[in-house]
Write a structure and sequence with these properties.
By secondary structure, chain A is an alpha/beta fold. Helices cover about 30% and strands about 20% of the residues of chain A. Chain A has an 8-stranded mixed β-sheet with strand order 6-7-8-3-9-10-12-11, with helices on both faces. Chain A has a 4-stranded antiparallel β-sheet with strand order 2-1-4-5, covered by helices on one side. Chain B has a domain of about 190 residues: MetI-like fold (Orthogonal Bundle). The chains are: A alpha/beta (about 325), B mainly alpha (about 280). The interface between A and B is medium-sized, with 32 and 22 residues.
């Protein structure tokens, strides 16, 4: 069966020297939720922008991205517009800035249906009303006539998610959908995404630097570091049997509220590698407690581990 | 809505708006306001002083034409030229500027160099050239002034577009599969209307002044039609014997320009605040 999204050896370069993504490969199956975690600069957002055809003019790409079997990397906008916004949609990080300020909510929602589904404005308005209702937005009729600045952040992110679901996409890419929201709203948005997935059986790519958010929603988790995939596996495997020292460190950074004892938050020393740096060995080696001479000279390759579909790129995986 | 409220809070701009409305109404209703029309000659009252004699409230010119009626006609003509030429420069400037700014790169570069070449041409020479080739006519005047007026508008629109293009909602619109044309006209242009409206209100008086200047030189509106510029030119000739021939049209022109400028400033303040509040 063709995977919904198949990314193969994708690399994204800016200005020749800066490598934001280095040979990343992964797949998203139909109705699967894949979480991508990593620090700022690990290349997780660039992967998505490449899939949506939103990379800046200076970007050069390599590899391939196939959506339902069709190559979509570096296709002209006219080709991409047939699928993006309808079959393949994206929710952005900041709901405060991703709605057009001078258009009513109803108009913005209806526009998507008019453009992609060829509906009349009247039908599209009805569709917009239904989607707001599904997003559990109170008084949807009134919201349709309001402008974005009249809505709260959580409400706006619901509108954005609703907009991305209007044409029943087969894949939704959510780039840090909750990062700009406060914690209580964050939990509700995650709930909403979970419900939506159950109803629609669409695939989701959820990007976050917060492994807790990802773990609560994803079937599989992909850990990125320095533009490369360093570990991939099912959520259970990653949480319980993380092999890469970086994944283990990320997991240690999640505060555990069950222990009342006040202690210092564990942090990861050092800085994420600059995308401009030339890599020789493992990108994580300078910060890795287990790094050896081999890690600094020879780059570890992503390889299958004992557990099914668990891959890790490390010379000295954490013994499980 | 809220911009209208803030405009109301500015007494100067509000007064200007009222004066403009009154002048505009007078100009439109001109032919019905006075028994005298702008072209008929009253030999009984040649170069008459302002007064009630013969219904010539503002006096007559040296051919005995009613100055009140002629001033109203001149105002109508000046406003028409100002508005039409502004409309031309608005439409052309927005389309050209938004296209250049949104396309960016080489296209933007070429389009902006073209504007620079055009704005290097001496304006008066350009208008004289056009009138020589195509003959006099008020429509030509609209076109000639509008053809030059859009240059600055296009620059302003391009600058605004460049900054709006980088905002996140444009990226979101691209991601939802909207075509470039739809993004430009539905998501970019309405967002830059604030500064554009302000600039347009300030363009109208500039164009009226320019038209008056051209008419004063004899390049603009031709007899028997009148514009404020031709009336002032006539009046300037009789300045010592019959000062009202200069003062009436001159006063109207000054009032009109002052009010349009004050209104433009008021609008700028009213619209600017909205931008800050939304951000």
């Amino acid at each position: 069966m063709t995977p919904t999204l198949a990314v193969d050896a994708l690399s994204v370069h800016f200005g020749g020297r800066v490598a934001a993504v280095r040979e990343a490969s992964f797949q998203v199956q139909a109705a699967e939720c894949l979480g991508i975690v990593g620090e700022s600069g690990s290349g997780k957002t660039q992967v998505c922008l490449a899939a949506m055809g939103l990379l800046g003019a200076g970007a050069r790409t390599g590899g391939s991205i196939r959506f339902e079997g069709e190559e979509i990397l570096d296709r002209p906008a006219a080709t991409l517009n047939r699928i993006r916004g309808s079959k393949l949609t994206m929710v952005f990080q900041d709901p405060m800035t991703s709605l057009t300020p001078h258009l009513r909510i109803g108009t913005q929602l209806a526009e998507v249906l008019v453009c992609h589904a060829g509906m009349s404005w009247r039908e599209a308005e009805a569709g917009a009303l239904r989607i707001l209702d599904r997003m559990h937005i109170p008084e949807p009729q009134r919201r349709l006539r309001q402008y974005p600045h009249e809505l709260s952040g959580g409400m706006r992110q619901r509108v954005m998610i609703g907009m991305s679901l209007l044409c029943e996409p087969s894949l939704l890419i959510a780039d840090e959908p909750t990062t700009a929201l406060d914690v209580t709203v964050q939990a509700r948005i995650i709930d909403l995404l979970r419900n939506v997935r159950q109803d629609t059986r669409m695939g989701v790519v959820l990007i976050s630097h917060d492994i807790a958010v990802v773990a609560s929603l994803a079937d599989r988790i992909l850990v990125m570091y320095g533009g490369r995939v360093v570990e991939a596996g099912t959520t259970r495997t990653i949480l319980d049997l993380a092999l890469h020292p970086y994944t283990a460190a990320l997991l240690r950074c999640v505060p555990d509220l069950r222990h009342a004892r006040v202690e210092r938050m564990p942090t990861l020393a050092g800085q994420a590698p600059s995308p401009a740096s030339e890599e020789l060995g493992c990108a994580f080696a300078p910060r890795c407690p287990r790094a050896s001479e081999r890690c600094r000279s020879e780059r570890p390759l992503l390889s299958e581990q004992s557990a099914a579909s668990h891959q890790v790129a490390c010379h000295h995986p954490q013994s499980s | 809505m809220s911009a209208a409220w803030r405009l109301r809070a500015q007494p100067a701009a509000l007064c200007a708006l009222i004066v403009i409305a009154v002048l505009l109404t007078l100009a439109m209703a001109g032919p019905w306001l006075t028994a005298n029309d702008a072209e008929s000659l009253d030999w009984a009252h040649v170069a008459a002083e302002p007064g009630w004699a013969g219904g010539h409230w503002f006096g007559t010119d040296r051919l005995g034409r009613d100055l009140f009626a002629r001033t109203l006609e001149g105002m109508r003509m000046s406003l028409a030229v100002g508005l039409a030429a502004s409309a031309i420069s608005l439409v052309v400037g927005i389309a050209y500027g938004a296209l250049a700014g949104y396309a960016g790169g080489r296209t933007d570069h070429l389009m902006m160099r073209f504007i620079e070449v055009l704005s290097g041409l001496p304006l008066i020479f350009f208008v004289i050239f056009l009138t020589v080739v195509f003959g006099h006519g008020q429509y030509l005047l609209f076109l000639a002034i509008g053809a030059v007026g859009w240059l600055t508008m296009a620059r302003i629109v391009r600058g605004q577009t460049l900054s709006i293009r980088e905002r996140e909602f444009i990226e979101a619109a691209v991601a939802s599969g909207a075509s470039s044309a739809r993004i430009i006209f539905k998501h970019v242009v309405p967002n830059l209307l604030g500064p554009v409206i302000v600039y347009a209100t300030l363009t109208v008086p500039q164009i009226i002044l320019f038209e008056s200047f051209l008419s004063f030189l004899g390049l603009g509106v031709q007899e028997p039609h009148a514009s404020l510029g031709t009336l002032i030119a006539e009046g300037a000739g009789e300045m010592q014997a019959a000062p009202w021939m200069l003062l009436v049209p001159g006063g109207v022109l000054a009032a009109l320009l002052l009010c349009l400028n004050v209104l433009g400033d008021g609008l700028r303040d009213a619209l600017d605040v909205r931008e800050e509040r939304k951000a």
